[in-house]
User: Which sequence fits this backbone?
């Protein structure tokens, strides 16, 4: 089966035909680094990490670009609120983002450009838009003239009135058209800014991705991804800027968007008390459980995040790791993932079907353990980005925020004492040791190979 992708631009599932089969280009909108990433921010990171892993099994080279927005009014507001230097905020927050995403088994993109390091490219693009008659300077700002783009709105398929209302477009007397959006805006002495032909200022949000994607992937490239909330205005405006500046009919060939995320059936909101950062959740559950849970739904569908769902995902992964632990003596064959598993992912990243196939492989492995079956299981898991941890480490990791520190040496010593007590038929002492460990949050599992332990 060939790879099929649902293209937001055409509203159809299409056969993927890369511009250059020797090097597939993919751009995904990255974080604005002013605070911890919330669970909604994690969904596109996980989704497009799986796509990246899949593409690398199908093509000789994939160039994955995901930006960091480190110039933004939200960052400026954070600096004024805390009194911290902007660079300090963005460096710390970017590091936290990388740490949290790594805990979700999300690999790094091939290129991770920062907006502040590409101001020259943005200025160049804005100059070309002015030269082409698609942008104009007014009152210290440079704006894109939306009516100059005949098919503006093709991605979101909204009429102009809906687009203006949906974007909460700023009303300004210097605009030629109410829908026009900012490419460059002036900065005062207390706001970050760069010299430009239009005075000291800073870029608008939309121009950043247009400039950075062009630098690393060219005027046109294969896949542009992000959350559904970015379809309008961000991605719509990217298309307008890029096509007009580069004088091309298209920007990205395929547009992929993951669905909205809710929490416990409601929109995530700090006021509702259901706003969760990845950092907070990692204190309660392993990142791999969060990843596995997110992949249980098809990426385009809305996702209702619940604490119970995460616990179930963790319990499911426990079963996979238990099988690997029980058959640790079997060395896995170096084999590719089975064709029907890959076919599921080639069908617009059908991760629910892929996971069901993973369960079938687990059942087969438990019934008749073999190097080949274990190899198939691990090859599939690798594409999904799960079963990446050390088996014993999975069961002994301590993620609960309020958990008592676990002393592995102490636990192993108590297990040895219990073993000796049982050998001496002192079952009362053996039972007491088990009870003491249970009170410490430790579960013992006796098997043919001896006694192993895990956290409750």
Assistant:
């Amino acid at each position: 089966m060939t790879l099929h992708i649902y293209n937001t631009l055409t509203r159809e599932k299409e056969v993927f035909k890369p511009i250059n089969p020797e090097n597939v280009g993919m751009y995904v909108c990255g974080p604005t680094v002013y605070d911890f990433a919330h669970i909604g921010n994690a969904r596109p990171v996980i989704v497009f990490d799986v796509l990246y892993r899949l593409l690398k099994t199908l093509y000789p080279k994939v160039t994955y670009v995901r930006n960091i927005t480190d110039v933004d009014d939200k960052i400026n507001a954070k600096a004024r609120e805390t009194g911290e230097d902007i660079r300090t905020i963005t460096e710390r927050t970017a590091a936290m983002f990388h740490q949290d995403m790594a805990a979700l088994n999300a690999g790094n993109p091939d290129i991770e450009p920062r907006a502040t390091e590409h101001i020259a490219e943005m200025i160049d693009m804005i100059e070309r838009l002015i030269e082409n008659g698609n942008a104009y300077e007014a009152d210290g700002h440079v704006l894109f003239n939306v009516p100059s783009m005949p098919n503006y709105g093709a991605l979101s398929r909204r009429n102009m009135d809906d687009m203006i209302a949906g974007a909460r477009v700023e009303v300004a007397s210097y605009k030629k058209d109410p829908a026009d959006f900012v490419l460059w805006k002036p900065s005062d002495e207390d706001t970050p800014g760069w010299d430009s032909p239009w005075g000291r200022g800073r870029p608008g949000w939309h121009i950043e991705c247009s400039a950075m994607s062009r630098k690393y992937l060219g005027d046109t490239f294969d896949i542009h991804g992000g959350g559904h909330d970015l379809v309008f205005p961000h991605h719509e405006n990217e298309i307008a800027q890029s096509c007009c500046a580069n004088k091309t009919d298209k920007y990205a060939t395929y547009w992929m968007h993951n669905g909205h995320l809710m929490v416990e059936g409601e929109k995530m909101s700090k006021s509702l008390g259901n706003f969760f950062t990845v950092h907070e959740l990692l204190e309660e559950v392993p990142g791999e459980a969060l990843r596995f849970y997110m992949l249980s739904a098809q990426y385009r569908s809305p996702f209702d995040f619940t604490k119970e769902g995460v616990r179930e995902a963790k319990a499911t992964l426990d079963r996979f790791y238990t099988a690997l632990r029980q058959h640790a003596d079997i060395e896995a064959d170096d084999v590719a993932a089975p064709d029907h598993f890959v076919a599921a992912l080639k069908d617009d990243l059908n991760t629910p079907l892929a996971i069901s196939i993973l369960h079938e492989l687990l059942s087969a492995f438990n019934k008749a353990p073999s190097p080949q079956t274990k190899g198939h299981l691990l090859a599939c898991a690798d594409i999904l980005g799960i079963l990446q941890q050390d088996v014993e480490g999975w069961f002994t990791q301590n993620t609960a925020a309020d958990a008592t520190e676990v002393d592995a040496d102490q636990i192993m010593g108590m297990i040895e004492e219990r073993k000796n007590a049982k050998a001496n038929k002192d079952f009362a002492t053996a039972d007491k040791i088990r009870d003491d460990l249970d009170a410490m949050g430790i579960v013992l599992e006796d098997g043919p190979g001896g006694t192993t332990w895990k956290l409750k």
In short: The chain is about 45% helix and 15% strand. Residues 19-261 form a domain with the Rossmann fold fold (CATH 3.40.50.620).
